[in-house]
Write a structure and sequence with these properties.
single chain; mainly alpha; hpI Integrase, Chain A; 3-stranded antiparallel sheet; 3 strands
């Protein structure tokens, strides 16, 4: 459809150049294509994945903590790979994200629970040994097996994103990836009573339409629910 519109616009531009049309009225014509809503990871899939990971290995423990952090905070996979020890405020149980590691370049602060803080402390402690063994100097939280930040290991995202793809194929998990986990986080917020504005802020979205897509809001369902407030 977009290709055909482009061809038509090209023909109309020729007509304009020949003086047959005074204005280029077609310049602002755009076609909006409906896209299917991507599904969120299910709680069952996530629980199964976490149970299958071998947490006795460094990579298994690291990946399980990364998956839980994605699930409990909804941060993007690239932001996860850029997290450093300074981003964790253990005293106040907060994840403090500077604008430079965020897609929208706006800072964000998110709460952490006891379990997440305990796991992050454990990972940071283990990381010290990994870095020392491989003579690496950094303060990133998610590292490769040789102490290199995962953000430097795989392009365009990082090692965790690649491993999630591998796990989904290995264990036949239908819908386990960073974006689907992020959608599950958003949906869980709504189930617990958060309004769409709060969810949008937590996801660091630039507008509510993006949040609506994440939540899979059906326009007809929205209209029916809004009728209660008339």
């Amino acid at each position: 459809m977009h290709g055909r519109l482009k061809q038509i616009k090209a023909v109309l531009s020729k007509c304009h150049d020949n003086g047959w049309y005074e204005s280029m009225f077609w310049k602002n014509i755009k076609i909006k294509v409906n896209t299917s809503v991507k599904e969120a990871t299910t709680e069952r899939e996530l629980t199964l994945l976490l149970s299958l990971l071998d947490k006795s290995t460094y990579s298994g423990l690291r990946d399980s903590i990364a998956i839980l952090l994605l699930y409990k905070t909804g941060i993007r996979i690239k932001t996860l790979g850029l997290l450093r020890e300074q981003n964790i405020d253990f005293d106040n149980m907060l994840l403090k994200l500077q604008g430079e590691i965020m897609k929208a370049h706006r800072p964000l602060i998110l709460p952490l629970d006891d379990e997440m803080c305990t796991l992050l402390r454990e990972l940071i402690s283990i990381n010290d040994g990994v870095r020392k063994e491989h003579r690496e100097k950094n303060d990133y939280i998610f590292l490769s097996n040789i102490g290199v930040p995962i953000s430097n290991t795989v392009s365009p995202s990082n090692l965790i994103a690649k491993n999630l793809w591998v796990y989904s194929k290995k264990w036949n998990l239908k819908n386990v990836n960073p974006h689907s986990i992020r959608r599950l986080y958003a949906q869980n917020l709504v189930k617990r009573g958060a309004d769409i504005n709060l969810v949008s802020h937590a996801l660091a979205h630039s507008d509510l339409s993006t949040t609506s897509k994440y939540l899979g809001l059906n326009v007809n369902n929205v209209a029916r629910n809004l009728r209660e407030f008339l």
